[in-house]
């Protein structure tokens, strides 16, 4: 690398770091300030309580709203063994969300259980279907859920067609193999068309966990774009312990925004507030795995979240969502839908409520 290029790279890094540290009001506005509250209904059904910064019991949606949240995200599984995060429960929770004046994002996993970069299990009912049949399945299921939400007065403002689909969804048929995006593209088009047929104003998000790598991000979105896939919002996951520096995040957001000409949202992020574990389920992210020398404390959690928001804002993103801030450790709300009572909560050190349900008094979602 020539010295001039080295200098340019150093300057770019410095500028990105400066952007990450810029005050909240300095640049773009985060119009989507979100919280994934997919586990909340189960906690409430189990008798879980939530407390505001003053220690008073309050409605968890009100607590989140007072901290700046204006958007709620709900995952939906096709036929989970737990009986939660299915169509009926999403319809129920959507009523509570809309009643609080919050906007609604529905996150279709197109699975009976967790879908993420490492696994995209086809729902059991669709397991023998061809790629063409799966396209029809995606359309019909997406349209059915969306229209049911619309019929009860809770039309989704946004819909994710797939969750962290780095190399496709509905594996193996919808997986990207040997750079062949055609099968996945056929599914994404059906999902997009179903959402727009339900409600043309609903935004369709395509979501990957590629905030760590500009090359991977470009590979995916270039791939679906080349197949003519339409989408409205480019959605990325960013967990600092997995996805690298804030300077890199800034560069990936900026590139995605300018390259595809669409709004960018960080659909998932979180940071730990303790190094301890509340239950017998090991923490998904150990409290000792820290970023930017920020401690695993209430103050540290709030600081890291603020830095992520500042970085996203200054890179031109329009939203940041905290993943599962309400999922504190309460017995019976386990991570495995096939054994929800017998498994624990691996997120108990990442929520913004402690193990008694009290909110982190420092946490803020800021425009």
Q: How would you describe the overall organization of this protein?
A:
The chain is α/β, with parallel strands linked by helices. The chain contains ten helices and eight strands. The chain is 36% helix and 11% strand. An eight-stranded parallel β-barrel has the order 1-2-3-4-5-6-7-8, surrounded by four helices. Strand 3, helix 5 and strand 4 form a beta-alpha-beta unit. Helix 5 packs parallel to helix 6. It is globular, with a radius of gyration of 20 Å. The model is unreliable at 1-26 (pLDDT under 50).
Measured by DSSP, the beta-strand proportion falls in 5-15%
Structural class: alpha/beta
The helix content, as a percent range, equals 25-40%
Count every beta strand, where a strand is a DSSP E run of 2 or more residues: 8
Quote the average pLDDT.
93
Distance between the termini: 40 Å
Radius of gyration, taken over Cα atoms and rounded to an integer in Å: 20 Å
The H-and-E topology, N to C, reads as HEHHEHEHEHEHEHHEHE
Question: What's the helix count?
Answer: 10
What's the shape? globular
The largest pleated sheet is described as: 8 strands, parallel, barrel
Strand order of the largest sheet: 1-2-3-4-5-6-7-8
């Amino acid at each position: 690398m020539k010295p001039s290029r080295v200098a340019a790279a150093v300057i770019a890094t410095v500028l990105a770091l400066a952007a990450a540290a810029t005050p909240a009001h300095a640049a773009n506005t985060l119009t989507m300030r979100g919280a994934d509250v997919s586990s909340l209904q189960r906690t409430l059904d189990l008798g879980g309580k939530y407390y505001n910064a003053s220690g008073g019991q309050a409605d968890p949606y009100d607590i989140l709203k007072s901290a700046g949240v204006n958007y709620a995200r709900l995952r939906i599984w096709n036929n989970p063994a737990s009986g939660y995060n299915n169509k009926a429960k999403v319809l129920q929770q959507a009523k509570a969300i809309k009643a609080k004046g919050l906007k609604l994002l529905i996150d279709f996993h197109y699975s009976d259980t967790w879908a993420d970069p490492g696994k995209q299990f086809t729902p059991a009912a669709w397991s023998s279907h061809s790629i063409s049949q799966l396209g029809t399945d995606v359309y019909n299921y997406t349209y059915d859920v969306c229209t049911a939400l619309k019929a009860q007065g809770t039309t989704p403002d946004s819909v994710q067609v797939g969750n962290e689909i780095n190399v496709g969804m509905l594996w193996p048929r919808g997986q990207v193999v040997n750079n062949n995006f055609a099968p996945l593209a056929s599914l994404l088009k059906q999902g997009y068309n179903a959402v727009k047929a339900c409600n043309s104003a609903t935004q369709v998000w395509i979501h990957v966990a590629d905030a760590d790598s500009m090359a991977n991000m470009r590979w995916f979105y270039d791939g679906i774009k080349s197949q003519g896939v339409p989408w409205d919002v480019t959605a990325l996951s960013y967990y600092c312990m997995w996805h690298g520096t804030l300077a890199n995040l800034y560069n990936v957001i900026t590139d995605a925004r300018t390259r595809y000409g669409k709004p960018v949202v960080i659909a998932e992020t979180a940071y730990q507030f303790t190094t301890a574990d509340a239950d017998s389920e090991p923490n998904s992210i150990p409290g000792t795995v820290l970023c930017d020398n920020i401690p695993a404390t209430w103050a540290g959690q709030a600081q890291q979240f603020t830095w992520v928001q500042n970085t996203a804002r200054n890179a031109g993103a329009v939203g940041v969502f905290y993943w599962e801030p309400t999922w504190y450790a309460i017995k019976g709300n386990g991570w495995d839908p096939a054994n929800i009572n017998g498994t624990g909560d691996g997120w108990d050190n990442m929520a913004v409520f402690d193990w008694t349900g009290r909110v982190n008094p420092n946490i803020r979602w800021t425009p």
